């Protein structure tokens, strides 16, 4: 990756395999280190920011939700945001986000407007939460985003419950995953991290066994940042939210991309550990209006 090329060899390999390098070059012009006023205004409206990173102690990749009243995420400069909040004590990224210089990927996804913005950089702890120095800032198209309305904080919402840690998905967790229409995925590259979103109609995320999942790779923006990262480093973290109760299911493991003979692409995820936390988010959202782009 250079200032003139936002992609590394993994992303380039997938782009070339699919035959979209020219389109990726065009779309890649939107990636830059600066936070424009419209992006800053978007961030201040969000009640949640998803952060992806690798825990340097375990080597595992996780995606974690950070939540707060709108305004808890703010641009504090042309290349920096501050987050007034931390990962919970039992969150698997709490220690990593407490260290200065941790590479992070973030995504702010607004189900109300089907808009999303990604900001990647390095985080450092502050007295109130986090500061993130950005090196990549860009928006994505609204494809596969389900529309939801924010109904407000749950009545009596308090601190998150103690995490439940398992080495495989329980039957209830398997049903929850199979019914999901949205999840977030964290991946890493040499010296960096990324957080992205995947969506579809319920059933697009398939449970193959208590420790294996798969999902189709739908046509997107041709950047292939997530799949490019997985091409060079298989570490991955998934985050699924119960949009009504605020329960978070965080999964860590490895993921691999497979190409079908008909041009389709499928990602297969192998679980190492699952962390389920009740009340990880205080917010409750309406039932979804599924994206018209969903297959």
From TrEMBL:
<protein>
    <recommendedName>
        <fullName>Pyridoxamine 5'-phosphate oxidase putative domain-containing protein</fullName>
    </recommendedName>
</protein>
<dbReference type="InterPro" id="IPR012349">
    <property type="entry name" value="Split_barrel_FMN-bd"/>
</dbReference>
């Amino acid at each position: 990756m250079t200032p003139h090329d936002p992609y590394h060899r993994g992303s380039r390999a997938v782009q070339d395999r699919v035959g979209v390098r020219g389109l990726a070059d065009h779309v890649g012009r939107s990636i830059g280190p600066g936070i424009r006023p419209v992006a800053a205004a978007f961030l201040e409206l969000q009640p949640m920011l998803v952060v992806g990173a690798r825990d340097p102690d375990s080597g595992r990749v996780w995606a974690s939700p950070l939540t707060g009243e709108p305004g808890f995420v703010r641009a504090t400069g042309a290349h920096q945001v501050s987050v007034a909040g931390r990962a919970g004590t039992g969150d698997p990224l709490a220690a990593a986000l407490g260290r200065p210089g941790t590479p992070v990927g973030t995504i702010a996804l607004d189900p109300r407007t089907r808009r999303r913005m990604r900001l990647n950089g390095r985080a450092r702890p502050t007295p109130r939460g986090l500061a993130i120095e950005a090196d990549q800032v860009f928006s994505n198209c609204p494809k596969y985003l389900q529309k939801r309305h924010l109904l407000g904080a749950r009545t009596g919402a308090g601190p998150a419950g103690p995490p439940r840690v398992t080495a495989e998905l329980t039957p209830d967790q398997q049903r929850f995953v199979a019914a999901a229409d949205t999840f977030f995925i964290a991946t890493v590259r040499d010296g960096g991290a990324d957080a992205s979103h995947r969506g579809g109609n319920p059933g697009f995320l398939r449970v193959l066994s208590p420790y294996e999942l798969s999902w189709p790779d739908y046509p997107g923006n041709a950047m292939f940042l997530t799949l490019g990262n997985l091409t060079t480093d298989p570490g991955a973290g998934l985050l699924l939210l119960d949009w009504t109760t605020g329960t978070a299911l965080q999964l860590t493991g490895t993921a691999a991309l497979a190409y079908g003979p008909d041009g389709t692409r499928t990602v297969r995820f192998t679980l190492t550990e699952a962390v389920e936390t009740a009340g990880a988010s205080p917010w409750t959202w309406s039932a979804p209006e599924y994206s018209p782009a969903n297959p």
